[in-house]
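hiii so um. not sure if this is the right channel but i have a protein structure encoded as tokens and i wanna go backwards to a sequence. like what aa goes where. can anyone help
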């Protein structure tokens, strides 16, 4: 995937910019508070149809303005796409090749960027929901049936929650039956992606750090220690826990309670990783996803690396740039300044007060 051009009108602190990008590496630099992350956010919006910083569409519009827009010309596997996104208060209108996009789910199956940013890193580290969403987003692309399974599970869970709040035991059993069928399929897909990640994760971590350390990715499914994960066993367990769920008024067990984590030489991430180790481990995870998608789907996601040089030592920075350069993705990297040794790699853009100029 390559984003060839970007036009922003009244988006965040950008009143009006029109810029063309390199198909390889693009350095975005400038002082803090000038709009580097806002630019990355606009590119993320194009590929995910949402922000990674806010759930409110109105937050994306320039202060005092009511309407903003993001327009881009991109290509994927030699096919050009014209994307136009208009934001009005809390409404979002998306045109793909001049046709209205009615279903976000269909759009995001076609485009992808992988994001490394301090904002997302904190969310991923602190909240299991963010970790599940990260894995699910990749599975929507590589497993054609997975989106429907998640959609079906959420439909069942929503209906079951209504019955749990009303204490209707007789009706709950039917929804438990449906849930017991779809849960093993979701677990199987999540186990498969974790297996694929671990085939490449340690090697990537070593390439970035030079360390002979064992970085592993783990999946803890909520029902693993409670059932044998067969539909009959899951149904029996849910039946046993019905009174407990009625008492709480919502579903207590299932894939919406699953978790993911990493270990480094056996040390668990949130408890034992240093801040620098967590950053580079998370970056390694993103690059592992990049390798999996490239191999399975034949296209390379866009890499969005916000504040990439912060809290990483010089050797890791050099190794990371070398690895990314070899990956042949289109890359956007932000920093307050470009290290001198990287000045001749790709194109450079300076941001100042919502303005963008080539270096």
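sure thing!! here u go:
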């Amino acid at each position: 995937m390559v984003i060839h051009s970007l036009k922003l009108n009244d988006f965040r602190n950008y009143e009006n910019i029109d810029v063309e990008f390199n198909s390889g590496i693009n350095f975005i630099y400038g002082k803090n508070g000038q709009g580097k992350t806002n630019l990355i956010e606009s590119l993320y919006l194009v590929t995910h149809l949402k922000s990674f910083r806010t759930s409110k569409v109105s937050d994306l519009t320039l202060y005092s303005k009511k309407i903003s827009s993001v327009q881009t010309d991109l290509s994927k596997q030699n096919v050009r796409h014209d994307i136009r996104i208009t934001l009005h208060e809390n409404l979002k209108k998306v045109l793909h090749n001049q046709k209205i996009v009615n279903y976000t789910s269909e759009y995001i199956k076609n485009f992808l960027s992988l994001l490394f940013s301090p904002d997302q890193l904190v969310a991923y580290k602190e909240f299991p929901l963010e970790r599940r969403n990260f894995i699910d987003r990749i599975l929507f692309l590589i497993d054609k049936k997975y989106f429907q399974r998640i959609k079906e599970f959420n439909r069942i869970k929503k209906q079951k929650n209504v019955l749990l709040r009303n204490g209707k035991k007789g009706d709950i059993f039917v929804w438990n039956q449906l849930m017991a069928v779809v849960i093993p399929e979701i677990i199987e897909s999540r186990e498969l992606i974790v297996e694929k990640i671990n085939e490449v994760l340690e090697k990537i971590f070593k390439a970035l750090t030079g360390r002979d350390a064992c970085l592993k990715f783990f999946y803890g499914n909520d029902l693993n220690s409670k059932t044998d994960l067969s539909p009959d066993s899951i149904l029996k367990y849910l039946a046993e826990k019905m009174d407990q769920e009625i008492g709480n008024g919502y579903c207590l067990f299932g894939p919406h309670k699953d978790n993911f984590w990493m270990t480094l030489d056996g040390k668990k991430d949130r408890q034992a990783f240093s801040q620098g180790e967590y950053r580079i481990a998370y970056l390694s995870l993103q690059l592992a996803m990049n390798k999996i998608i490239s191999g399975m789907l034949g296209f390379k996601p866009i890499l969005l690396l916000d504040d990439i040089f912060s809290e990483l030592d010089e050797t890791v920075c050099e190794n990371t740039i070398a690895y990314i350069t070899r990956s042949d993705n289109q890359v956007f990297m932000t920093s307050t300044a470009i290290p001198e040794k990287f000045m001749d790699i790709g194109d450079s853009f300076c941001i100042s007060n919502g303005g963008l100029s080539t270096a």
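oh and The longest strand covers residues 2-11.
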